[in-house]
Design a protein that fits this description.
This protein has about 250 residues and is α+β, with helices and mostly antiparallel strands. It has helices spanning about 5-25, 110, 145-150, 230-250, and strands spanning about 1-5, 60-65, 65-70, 75-80, 85-90, 95-100, 100-105, 115, 120-125, 135-140, 170, 175-180, 190-195, 195, 200-210, 220-225.
């Protein structure tokens, strides 16, 4: 089940949950590396030959990469998934670097505008002392206005799957856990999964483009896998907030 919420409010909520997780478990607040795609280095794109760390200087510019760097500065975070075809990174006003999985071809004018559905994946570890119940959240928006500007038409569903060109599938260890397909969602909106249970060990999270391969897909940012705190931790924070507001009321009285 997928639920959608205003992005700013959910980000505050997830921040509180992350702090609860740290307090309850002494564990990582987020299990995803480079979920906001802001980790950059000098790797060169396959389509426009742009260094990843140069995309910041080009408004609305983009390029495609076989992998993205880790926040640690060592190794990769995201790599091509089962569909391969590279990961398209774009600079978007208000969101910095974001990803679109309906990507372009390799270097060269004859291939640049050929379109491919692509995917990206990341392998992460749940330790034996880590929690095992999580929420998966990420920001999503379609490129509806740009599609209409380019083709002067409404979105055309993919006849093979009944999905629009903006559809994105989410998979954990090869099993589909979410599908987001919102052809009229022009503003960023946070998508949140139902509770996900993961055992200790290695797991793979993958995002795939599911609609038509036409270079107009869903945009992704701020991917998080947040451990759900125990009910006692929620109750403790709730009691603290109630006490804080009662104190504020007494001081203002």
């Amino acid at each position: 089940m997928t639920r959608a919420y205003p992005t700013r409010g959910v980000n505050y909520f997830l921040m509180i949950v992350a702090l609860l997780t740290l307090g309850a478990y002494g564990a990582r607040a987020d299990f995803i590396d480079n979920g906001d795609f802001e980790a950059v280095d000098s790797r060169i794109g396959a389509t426009n030959s742009m260094a990843l760390n140069n995309l910041y200087w080009w408004t609305e510019w983009w390029d495609t990469y076989t992998s993205l760097p880790s926040e640690t500065g060592v190794g990769d975070s995201w790599t091509e998934g089962t569909l391969a075809n590279r990961i398209e990174v774009q600079r978007r006003a208000g969101h910095g670097l974001v990803v679109e999985l309906d990507t372009h071809g390799a270097t060269g004018a004859s291939e640049m505008f050929c379109c491919y559905n692509s995917s990206m994946q990341q392998t992460f570890e749940i330790g034996p002392d880590d929690p095992n119940v999580f929420w998966l959240a990420f920001d999503y928006r379609s490129r509806l206005s740009e599609w209409q500007d380019a083709f002067n038409t409404s979105d055309v569903p993919d006849p093979g799957q009944g999905l629009t060109t903006f559809a994105v599938g989410v998979y954990l260890d090869g099993q589909q856990v979410m599908v987001v397909d919102k052809p009229t969602q022009e503003a960023w909106q946070t998508q949140m999964s139902s509770e996900i249970q993961l055992t200790a060990g290695m797991h793979t999270l993958e995002f795939r483009a599911l609609g038509a391969a036409d270079s107009y897909g869903g945009l992704l940012d701020n991917i998080s896998l947040i451990a759900i705190p125990e009910p006692a931790s929620f109750a403790l924070v709730g009691a603290g907030l109630i006490g804080f507001f009662l104190l504020r009321r007494r001081q203002s009285a």
